Structure to design on (219 residues):
């Protein structure tokens, strides 16, 4: 006989916090396996042991779950970069590019989420939810900017441009470098078409190095 999940309603504050955390963990695991785009709210609920109709006690939607995770990923990336740059000065462009690219590559969920945030996630949640996310992301950008300006000769405006550029590049290149199975099969059949699906980290590092080289001379 097919297994029927045993859904139990969380009643205490602690139980609700644990259930909320379980939903976030399930969303991470499913996105890591299948990609953010493919994950449904029903799958998240089932994996977390929550009836799909009960998810709204914790999150308004699938999009809100992934927006919460995006905020956490912003904070994680900013903290990692700040820790790596602490006490360093005059960091060469190539070293900074490798650091930024490497710490992004260590966060595949973040790279996958980056293009989804403006395209779908922010558009499908209440305004207050977007506001909370943007404030969290702004805190992360402030941490990143402080760490990078303290360890390089870049101005705060240049660093803000750098952060905007590298996150845009990372989001796009990650999707290209991790194609769905239909495209992966096509690339196997015709390798001429696979040129864009190159290694994510080296290409991102090269592009960021070029950007960093040009930023100090930009008007």
């Amino acid at each position: 006989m097919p297994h029927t999940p045993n859904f139990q309603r969380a009643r205490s504050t602690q139980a609700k916090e644990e259930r909320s955390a379980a939903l976030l963990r399930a969303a991470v695991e499913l996105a890591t396996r299948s990609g953010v785009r493919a994950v449904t709210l029903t799958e998240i609920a089932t994996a977390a042991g929550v009836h799909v109709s009960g998810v709204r006690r914790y999150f308004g939607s699938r999009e809100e779950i992934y927006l919460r995770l995006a905020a956490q990923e912003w904070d994680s990336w900013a903290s990692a970069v700040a820790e790596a740059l602490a006490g360093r000065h005059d960091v060469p462009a190539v070293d900074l590019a490798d650091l930024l690219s490497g710490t992004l590559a260590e966060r595949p969920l973040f790279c996958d989420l980056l293009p989804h945030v403006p395209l779908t996630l922010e558009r499908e949640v209440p305004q207050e939810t977007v506001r909370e996310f943007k404030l969290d992301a702004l805190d992360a950008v402030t941490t990143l900017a402080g760490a990078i300006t303290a360890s390089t000769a870049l101005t705060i405006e240049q660093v803000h441009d750098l952060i905007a550029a590298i996150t845009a590049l990372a989001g796009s290149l990650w999707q290209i470098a991790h194609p769905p199975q239909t495209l992966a099969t096509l690339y196997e059949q015709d390798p001429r078409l696979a040129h864009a699906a190159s290694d994510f980290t080296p290409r991102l590092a090269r592009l960021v190095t070029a950007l960093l080289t040009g930023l100090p001379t930009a008007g």
Remarks:
- The mean pLDDT is 91.
- The two ends are 69 Å apart (CA to CA).
- The CA atoms of residues 1 and 46 lie 18 Å apart.
- The chain is about 70% helix and 0% strand.
